[in-house]
Every structure is written in structure tokens, then in C-alpha cells.
Fold each of these.
Amino acid sequence: MKKTKTTTYTSRPWLRRITARLAYKAREEWLARATLALSERFAAGSVTVPADVKVSCGFPGGGSPRRRIGECWARSRSAAKVNEVFISPVLAKAYVVLDVLGHELLHAVDDCKSGHGKAFTRNSKAVGYTGGKHSRAKDATVDYLNLLAKQLGQYPHGEVVLASKQQKPSHGLHKCVCPNRCGTYYATPKTLEDVGAPVCPSCGETTKAVERREKKILVKALTRLGYLVQEEGHELLGRARSG
């Protein structure tokens, strides 16, 4: 019986050129082609992606949609008994989608059994990913994903912009600070509305109410710079760490 040679996505230059001209109209079609290409790439590193894995675009079933941008479900959680991979709709750039897709396909390799543990990290490093919870492409794999993004063309999807979180009004005590740094005092929202901020008993100056968001931004900025903030006097103590 005469053997037939299988033509894969990356085995023929002319096939890559033709594919590059195709304008995918459906996200799933683009993702399916990307999955095929990444599976072949991973196979070169002795990492086998299940042939029946299903990839789609959708919000994650667990965790915050603002933080979780990809998800792979085990076969036991699917009625079709296949690994289900979802890429978040907040992603629209081809390279980023491919990077996240590669990460999720690595979960499908062992049916999500190792999580981000040793087996996952070992497989990740074998195919040019960093490994660990935030595993992403590195070195030659970055170049490959950039090339694949050009070959596949634009990801046929418009980014979904999540609504900004609305700050709920505070019903607790508001923090008030003396301008002379005598101390910190607290007042209820009704007191601030009716009579204003309290007067500092030490110096007689009217204190200033500190907005929650203003305080949060200040503390974050100082922490990022490596400084500590004293709660009572709001004084800069010095470097929290060297460098």
C-alpha cells in the first residue's frame, strides 16, 4: 500500500503564504488554525496537545474577568469529554491571544492535573515558555508567535471593554488630618455634611478630610517607590528597601 505524506500547516511555504492571505471571519476559525500551528510547534518539543481540544472566545467561568484572561477546563467538566479552552473577549491583539492560547494548551496537555505545578512548568520550558503561574513565551518562541500572528492575520474580534467599577459611598468614618500634623481624627459622613471637618484640639486648626481614593493612590505610589508611611503623623520614614 502506498504511503501518503501528510501536509501540515507549517510544512509547506506555499501553504503558509495562502493561509496568510485568508481573512478569517470567525474568531473560532482563527483560533482553530492557531491551535493547529501551536500543537505542531509543541510536538517538536515532545509535548503533545490533545487533538480534540476545543477553543473558543468567552469570559472565564471562575475568577475575575478583569484578571483572568484565559482558561482551560478538564475533560471531566465537559459533557463532550474534551478539554475546553476559552480566551477572554478583552483580548484583541493577535500576539497576546496566541501567547495566552499557548499557555492554556499547556494545561490541556495533562488535562489540567498539575495546575501550574512541576509537570506544567516542565512542559512549558520544553516549548519555550517561562513556566509557573504566569507562564508566557520567551526567546525564540516570542519570534515564532510574532511570525504566526502575521501569517494568521488580524484576530477577527473587537475588544470588549468592561465597565469601570463604581465606587460605593462610604457609610463609615471619614479620616481627617490636621494640617500641622498634630494627629488624625475621624468623623461620620453626617457630621462632615452638617458641621464640617472637626477642629484639631491641639492647635485649633480645622482638619482636612482625606478622600479614600486619594489616600489609596498616595500609599500605592509611596509603596512602589519603596517608602514607608507613618499612619499617625503621615511622615516619610525612609526607604523600605535598598536599590
Amino acid sequence: MRALVLCFCLLVTASQPASGHHAVAMIYQPEEMISVTGTVEAFRFYHPHCVIYLTRTNVEGESERGTIERAGASALWRQGGRQDTLKPGDVITAIGFPARDGSPDIALRVLEFTDGRPPINPPDRSGANE
């Protein structure tokens, strides 16, 4: 009986879809790059993704808040990013893939600082800039 219950539990667990992560191309448009400049509202340095909350002026001249998503803290750490890399009030330019749903969110590829610090440039997985 114990073996039957164990087999049932394993079968149910193994049949569940792996929904814990998503592909960048499902949410963002990797075939397009945009540049966004704005003011940092908050910076979350954690896993599975670091997130920058940014306020910027859109094409209509209105202020809007968006998110900039980056790989996890360990990946950003390898690129030189730390918990104190961004502070509220910092003005940055983020270059990355726009959201498919038209929201002001992007998947970060390059982070540039207006204060002269060197940019954080995540490696290109194609090997082009490694």
C-alpha cells in the first residue's frame, strides 16, 4: 500500500508542468531593441530577477512608471552590479527588449549611468560580445 501511495505521488508530481520560469521571448520582443531614460524609483536585487522601477516621460509627454527586468542577483553581480548600484533618484538609460503587451517594461541588455560610471553590459548569449 505504501508503495502504491508513493507511486501515485510521484506520478502526480512528475505530470505537473514546469511553470516556475518563462522564456524572454514570451513576454518581450527580442527582435527589437529600445532605449529608455528615466529616474530610478526603486531597485530590487534578488532572484529570480533583479527589477528596476523607473519613472520616465513617454512620447505623449506624460510621466509613466515601468519596470526593467534583469537576470538574477548573481548574474548582475558577475557584471559588477551590487545591491547599492542603483539608488532612488539615479537617472539611468536602459537598453533592452520591449514588452509584447505594450506596457513600459523592458528586459535589460545594457544599463548606462548618466553620472559617468561604466555601463553594465550583460553578455550576449550568442557569443557576439564575449
Amino acid sequence: MLSRTDDLALLMGRVFVAALFLPHGFHKLMNFWSFAASLGAKGVPYSNAIAVLAVVTEILGPLTLIIGLWPRWTALVLAVLTLLKIATTYRSGLWGAVFLPRRNVELYRNLQIADLVTTIPSVTFLFPTDLII
């Protein structure tokens, strides 16, 4: 059983991760058609449907993390979404993005977000407090 401080720490971690996604989700929602058009310009098939899925994921995912509903699955979906964003953005220049780190700060920020999203919600399941010495 988790103590109150453990519960509070996990809640704060989930809130911080949600704060990374919610503003971007609302921005994409408010500028939906330009976001869908940018996906289409990058060659993404079914750009309108993908845009709907991305916006719904970036808004509902953080909200489910905040309330603690399915934190592992939500974290996995958000991490996959982040990796898909990286693949879409750096599709033609991913090799150069790895070897030119100063030019690609956004890539490394997204990789850190993917790592953070998968780590924070699942720490309790990986390391139960009764097993930590």
C-alpha cells in the first residue's frame, strides 16, 4: 500500500507530464485545419483522421493521467504518439538529427518527453514501496 506522500508524488508526476501535452493538444484543437494541412503536406496519409486521433490523444491522454485512470496504458499511448511525431517531423533527416544535436533541440526534448511519460506513471508498478530497501 502506498503512503500519502507516495500518492502525492505520483500525482505531481502525472500532473507535470500532463502539463507537457495539454497546451499542445489545445493549440492543435484551436488550429485544427492548419494542423491537418501540415500533416498532409508532410505526406501523412489520411491526414484529417490522423489529426483527429492526435488531438484527442493529446487532450484526453493527459486528463486520464491526472485522474490516474489506466496510467500505464495512457503513458504507453502518449509515448507512442511522441515517437510518431518524431518520426513524422524528422523522417527525411533523422540521421542528421542524431549527429547534429545543437540543431535539433526539439528532437531531444521529444525523446526526453517519451522517456518521462513512460517512467513516471509506472514507477509504482516496477518498484513497489515494500520492496525498496
